[in-house]
Design goal:
Blueprint: E1 12-16, H1 18-21, H2 32-37, H3 39-45, E2 49-52, E3 56-57, E4 69-73, H4 80-92, E5 96-101, H5 111-119, E6 131-132, E7 155-157, E8 163-165, H6 180-195, E9 200-203, H7 243-255, E10 262-265, H8 272-276, E11 286-287, H9 290-293, H10 299-315, E12 321-323, H11 332-336, H12 358-374, E13 378-382, H13 403-407, H14 450-453, H15 455-458, H16 465-478, E14 488-489, E15 496-501, E16 505-510, E17 516-517, E18 523-527, E19 535-536, E20 540-545
This protein binds alpha-D-glucopyranose (GLC).
Length: 546
């Protein structure tokens, strides 16, 4: 493309869940050495950048989202020198690097929290967090009814009687973003990493930083169920208007550096309109489009979310992003291969239920990839998605590690099923995830069927998911019509999504039971399944040159 628009407006960003991507030192946990060894693979895939989940020093109560020191690499993942080498080598491969930053909370082992514990009630050290007296007789009840996203109350009581807030695990105390030191510290951390050459940050729980000053109770749920962390306007801890002021300051920090550094917000907003507020001109650059991710395989709903995303983001001058999977949600072939029993709502737990038709889920995932990668804007690919990995739903109870499992009293099996280490090669575990002679087992067991999903097994097989992604990503680079720009819906029956992009590109996805005759075209550029007699069958997608 000859466009001069900043790279992030149309980038495909690959998500590296570091502990499950590639294990360089053989301890069974992925690391920076592993990522470095797989840079040629990422380059050949055709992605523009990688987002790496937290690699900072951490006790790993939530796999690195409990950060003890933002200026150190966790020894399980490597060293600062290795991180710097990775950034440099990735750049040599033409791949930008976006680490994760976790501003809503720190680890309970972070020096600030340790100082707050030691300093006691009413101290300035406690002011950096959210400490409160309890309610009821002797303050034995939590200060309010907020719930942790991982289950149970969002408050933990200390032996001295005070309670502290944690929207996630008790090992992840929430910071007080009203405190100027908290703001200054994070701006300094951003600069620390920008100086080391990172190209941007993925901002964890960007919608949670600011809390209602009075910490009011959440109202009862309209369906009569227990109070949950549901979103909605004027929610006391999600998506509050004041959060944008923080990100405007972050934007100024990014703009101090050359080379188009960028932010992407993890913001589970209640609507596309609310999401667009994160990406106004002086705010963040992009945000994950979870409305798209939460939409089930249904033409009407997909079209609506595409239209509303493009309209609301376009109105504030931001590019759209498209995402189907990440390390927090059930992998999409395992979602699309099931009947939808419950609508997915932002900030509510969603675990698909009922019997799985994985073949159907895979067919839809192939079509979804062609849809996602041809929509205007940027896209995210979660490691293993390009291998068509299923959610691993039969992990034995005793290996589960996600805090959701314990905190929910063993009612929610959590997110481990989408985090199983990646299969690279070979017939048996660890399928090339760890090097030969490794001393450690992969930190989660890999299913035997991983052998058919490995990079090696799929490379060169035209019918494989990997080659579909590879071809789509390379075409996306070559075709001027793709990436940022406009799209126009074409007339098509209900159940068929058809749109054109200039110059000369058409995407058609058939979600209906009726075969659909392809519109006029000069060639089929790519098809999710072979096209027969010019007809597109159910759950099939094509890219056409007009
Ligand atoms: C985000 C992360 C998730 C983590 C949580 C708490 O939602 O994506 O993995 O558990 O924040 O940091």
């Amino acid at each position: 493309m000859t466009s001069t628009a900043p790279w992030w407006r149309s980038a495909v960003i690959y998500q590296v869940y570091i502990r499950s991507f590639a294990d360089g030192n053989g301890d069974g946990v992925g690391d920076i050495a592993g990522i470095r060894s797989r840079l040629p693979y990422l380059k050949s895939l055709g992605i523009d950048a990688m987002w790496i989940n937290p690699w900072y020093k951490s006790p790993m109560a939530d796999h690195g989202y409990d950060v003890a020191d933002f200026r150190e690499i966790d020894p399980r993942f490597g060293t600062m020198a290795e991180a710097e080498a990775l950034i440099e080598e990735a750049h040599q491969h033409g791949i930008r690097v976006i680490p994760d930053i976790v501003p809503n909370h720190v680890s309970d082992q972070h020096v600030w929290f340790q100082a707050a514990l030691a300093a006691g009630q009413g101290s300035p050290e406690r002011d950096r967090f959210v400490f409160r007296e309890g309610r009821g007789a002797e303050g034995a009840e939590p200060p309010n009814n907020w719930q942790s996203c991982f289950g149970g109350p969002a408050w933990t009581r200390l032996p001295d009687g005070q309670w502290y807030l944690h929207l996630f695990a008790p090992e992840q105390p929430d910071l007080n973003w009203e405190h100027p030191e908290v703001r200054a510290e994070f701006e300094d951390i951003l600069r620390f990493w920008f100086h080391r050459g990172v190209d941007g940050f993925r901002i964890d729980v960007a919608h949670g930083l600011v809390k209602h000053p009075e910490l009011p109770d959440l109202p009862p749920r309209p369906d009569g169920g227990a109070v949950a962390a549901q979103g909605g306007l004027d929610h006391p801890h999600w998506d509050r208007d004041e959060v944008h002021e923080i990100f405007r300051a972050w934007r100024r920090v990014a703009d101090e550096f050359p080379g188009n550094r960028k932010f992407v917000a993890e913001a589970w907003a209640p609507s596309p309109e609310r999401l667009a507020r994160y990406v106004r001109e002086d705010g963040l650059h992009t945000a994950f489009n979870f409305d798209f991710l939460m939409t089930s395989w249904n033409a009407k709903d997909l079209r609506e979310v595409i239209d509303s995303s493009l309209a609301t983001l376009g109105a504030v001058g931001a590019p759209a992003t498209w995402v189907l999977s990440n390390h927090d949600v059930t992998r999409h072939p395992s979602r699309f291969g099931r009947k939808v029993v419950k609508k997915w709502v932002a900030n509510e737990l969603y675990r698909p239920e009922g019997p799985l038709d994985f073949e159907l889920g895979t067919r839809r995932a192939r079509a979804a990839a062609l849809l996602m990668l041809s929509l205007p804007g940027g896209a995210y690919v979660y490691q293993g998605e390009e291998l068509g990995l299923p959610e691993v739903e039969d992990l034995p109870d005793e290996v589960l590690q996600d805090p959701c499992w314990e905190r929910s009293g063993h009612t929610d099996r959590g997110r481990d099923g989408c985090r199983v280490p990646i299969p690279w090669s070979g017939q048996d575990a660890p399928f090339g995830f760890s090097p030969d002679g490794a001393t450690g087992e992969p930190w989660l067991p890999q299913p035997a069927l991983w052998k058919d999903h490995s990079v090696e097994a799929q490379t060169g097989d035209d019918a494989s998911m990997l080659e579909l992604y590879r071809r789509a990503l390379h075409l996306r680079r070559d075709l001027p019509a793709l990436g940022e720009g406009d799209m126009t819906w074409l007339d098509a029956p209900a159940g068929v999504l058809a749109f054109s992009r200039e110059p000369g590109f058409v995407c058609v996805v058939n979600l209906s039971a009726e075969p659909y005759r392809l519109p006029e075209h000069s060639s089929v550029l790519l098809a999710s399944e072979p096209v027969e007699d010019g007809l597109l069958s159910q759950d099939q997608a094509v890219w056409l040159a007009r």
